[in-house]
Amino acid sequence: MWVRVLGSAAGGGFPQWNCACPPCRAVRDGSRPARPRTQSSIAVSADRRRWFLLNASPDVPAQLAAFPALHPAEGSRAVPLEAVLLTDAELDHTLGLLLLREGRGLVVHATEATRDTLREGTGLLRTLEAYCPAEWRPVVPGVDVPLADGLSYRAFDVPTTKRARFGSGSREGRVVGYRLTDERSGRVLVHLPVLQELTPAVCAQLEDCACLLVDGTCWSDDELIGLGLAGRTAREMGHLPISGPGGSLEQLARLPVERRIYVHVNNTNPILLEDAPERRAVEEHGMEVAVDGLELEV
Question: Where's the Metallo-beta-lactamase domain (predicted)?
Answer without folding.
Answer: 50-264
